[in-house]
Write a structure and sequence with these properties.
The chain is an alpha+beta fold. It has an eight-stranded mixed β-sheet with strand order 1-7-6-5-2-3-4-8, with helices on both faces.
């Protein structure tokens, strides 16, 4: 071991041996005790790597059988080793299958067609709008139909950005009667958000709140949060505003987050969105107020406004 730098690694037997062989006269090696609050997460991460490494050595034909047997044995060992572990039946594997959906049948008994996200629900990944890669706009479209509720934080919203989503969002709002089916938070910073775009969203049934703060404390976030009652929620956080170029042609970086894989991130998104939604900085969208506030913004004092231009 000869790489200098910072680490956050569980010390295994082999790693410990490597550390013992290092020259302590020339190197400072810092260790710390594993904290009780982080033990579950850090040890689970380590065990996950061990399982992945072990199963990768098994041939394709036997990998599922061996993996399921290994998982059952590990769960049984946990139940035996920790008296209060309370391993329930829902944690014990019963088959070699993966549940992908539970859907209510149509009145005629047929199975409803539902679009699955282009990126699997378990995957957290980076989207860059690179050549040959699905555009972030296409990714978002594929998430809408399977979402129970949608929350959107978007600094700028323009007609060109929302047009591709309108029919999908209308269908989303018409399904069921869940409160807060579709919520948008946006701003008037730089005058880029268009009144007509917000009116179009409101006509679909969206709830909209606007921040008229143009100071340094303004909101500049861009995120979509697709809530699913099944627990398989997903989110997009990145650089893409609701403009055509940002969704389709611009060089944008957006992270697609899996709620199953990264539940802490999804929980924080939920709490932050609700804090903004129920806070005092955002006001219920009113077309007359929006027009009045943005007109004042455009005519008060000398200023230079750089805004996206729609041709």
């Amino acid at each position: 071991m000869s790489i200098h730098g910072l680490y956050e690694s569980i010390i295994t037997e082999s790693l410990n041996q490597e550390l013992e062989e290092l020259d302590s006269d020339k190197l400072s090696i810092k260790r710390r005790k594993l904290h009780p609050a982080e033990a579950g997460d850090r040890l689970a991460l380590h065990l996950g790597k061990v399982v992945i490494s072990a199963l990768s050595s098994v041939n394709d034909k036997d990998r599922v059988d061996v993996g399921v047997k290994l998982a059952r044995n590990l769960i049984n060992s946990i139940n035996t080793a920790i008296a209060k572990a309370e391993v329930h039946e829902d944690q014990v594997l019963s088959s070699k299958e993966v549940l992908t959906s539970v859907l209510s049948l149509n009145p005629d008994g047929s199975i409803p067609a539902i679009t699955e996200p282009l990126t699997p629900l378990l995957d957290t990944t980076l989207l860059t709008n690179a050549k040959g890669e699905p555009r972030v706009g296409s990714q978002i479209l594929s998430e809408i139909q399977s979402a129970d509720r949608i929350d959107v934080v978007m600094a700028f919203i323009r007609k060109s950005g929302i047009r591709p989503f309108l029919e999908y969002l209308r269908g989303h709002c018409e399904r069921g009667s869940t409160k807060h089916k579709l919520r948008f938070l946006t701003t008037t910073y730089t005058g880029a958000t268009e009144l007509e775009a917000l009116t179009m969203l409101q006509d679909l049934g969206a709830e909209i709140k606007v921040s008229y703060d143009t100071s340094a404390a303004r909101l500049h976030a861009k995120a979509w949060h697709f809530h699913r009652d099944s627990g398989a929620s997903t989110a997009y956080i990145g650089s893409s505003n609701l403009t055509y170029s940002a969704q389709e042609s611009g060089v944008e970086w957006n992270v697609r987050i899996s709620g199953i894989r990264n539940p802490d991130v999804i929980r924080k998104m939920t709490s932050m969105f609700d804090a903004y939604w129920f806070g005092s900085d955002f006001r219920d969208f009113d077309a007359e107020e929006f027009e009045r506030e943005t007109r004042v913004e455009r005519t008060t004092g000398p200023s230079i406004i750089l805004s996206p231009v729609e041709l």
